[in-house]
Design a protein that fits this description.
With 191 residues, the protein is mainly α. The protein is built from 10 helices and no strands. The structure holds fe (ii) ion (2 copies).
Length: 191
Amino acid sequence: MDYISRTEKQKIWDSLTEKRRVHTQGVLEKALEMAGIFGADADKVEVAVICHDVYRGRKDDELNALIDEFGIDERYKNNANLSHSKIACAMMKRDLGITDEDILNAVSYHTTGRRGMSVLEKIVFLADAIEKGRDYPGVDDIRKRAETDLDGACLMSLEGTIGFLKSQGFSEDEIDTDTIDARDDLIDKTL
Ligand SMILES: [Fe+2]
Ligand SMILES: [Fe+2]
C-alpha cells in the first residue's frame, strides 16, 4: 500500500542533506533486511525510514518553534536529539496525512524506544542504530544479534545507549523515561 505519493517521497529525499541521505539509505537497507527476517510491512518500513530524520540537523530555535506549533511536550525543547523524532511524527500526520499509528510510532520513538514496541518500531529503532554507516564500540555484536533476535538486539542497543549516557555523567533519572521503560520492558521479555 502506498502511504505517500511518489512525488512526496521524492520531495522528502530531496530535502535531506547528502550526509542524511546516505544515513537514511543505510537505515532503509537494514530495516528492509530485518523486515524480511522478522516480518514487517515493507511499505510501512519505507515511509517511516524516509521520514525519520527529516528534522535532524536543524537548529534549536527552529525545532523549539515547531514544538510550539505542533503542541509537542515542552520536555523536548532544546533537545534536538529527541525532538526531531516527535516533530517528524507530527509533520507526517498533518502534512502527509499519515494515520497509521504503527508508522507514526516507529518515527516518534526511533531515538528513545518505548515500552511495548511493535516489530516495526523495533526494526526502525535498531536499523537506525546499526546501519552500515554506524561505527561505535559494540556495533558489530548488535548487528550479529539482530540477524536472529530482534528483542535481544534492541536490548543490547538500549543498554549501550544508557551505559554511554551514564559514562557522560547522566543518572538514570536524567535519561528519557521512554528509553528506561523500553529497556526494562525488554529485560522482562527476554528473561
Ligand atoms: Fe533520528
Ligand atoms: Fe537516523
